[in-house]
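Field: sequence (string)
Field: structure_tokens (string)

Example rows 1 and 2, in order.
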Amino acid sequence: QLQASGGGLVEAGGSLRLSCAASSVTFSSYTMGWFRQAPGKEREFVAAISWSESSTNYADSVKGRFAISRDNAKNTVYLQMNSLKPEDTAVYYCAAAAQFRAVVASRLYDYWGQGTQVTVSS
């Protein structure tokens, strides 16, 4: 129901844009988030955007470099990633939460995509 795409291999300092297309979900009613999980590490919050686009949230590690946006007409959420660093290497997951605000906690998200690999070489 959530299909993430756009991952790949990029050099440090480069950019990627991830997309997450939703189906079978009332997309415009859900807060959308991005999380990531690096090998040997726990899944961590990256960014979130409320259903109305009135609020966003970012992890401190990506503030100023990543930007989350959504197009409710296309049932799609995006994550623009700039100035990528090797430590951004992870599998990135999109998720949907029946929440009013751009929540951070993964336990509040109801639906998860399959993940897309992002690898940043030094």
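Row 2 begins here:
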Amino acid sequence: QLQLVQSGGGLVQPGGSLKLSCAISGSTGDRRAIGWLRQAPGKEREGVSCISQNGSATNYPDSVKGRFTISRDNAKNTVYLHMNHLKPEDTAVYYCTTAIISGNNCRPFDHWGQGTQVTVSS
């Protein structure tokens, strides 16, 4: 059974950095595309990025482009979301999910992490 377990997150001041981790357990973990998305109160869910099994990332939305980077370490079965120059509008619950990638687009699929709160505030 595939499981995604998230860690990281928390409270950070504007301009700060955080790294989220998504540890994937299960026999096919290193062969699955993984994505990050976020959900803020009162806002629509927003996809952040996805990464293929070989490390190719999909496009980032303009809201995070140049500040967020997705990466993976298949030896550790872990996908990361590096978040720099954080802004208050980045405050949300972040989820890692298995993903389906088509070109530069991706969508969440059938397994989700438990969610991690990221709060950007002074």
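free_text_note (row 2): The chain has a mean pLDDT of 93.
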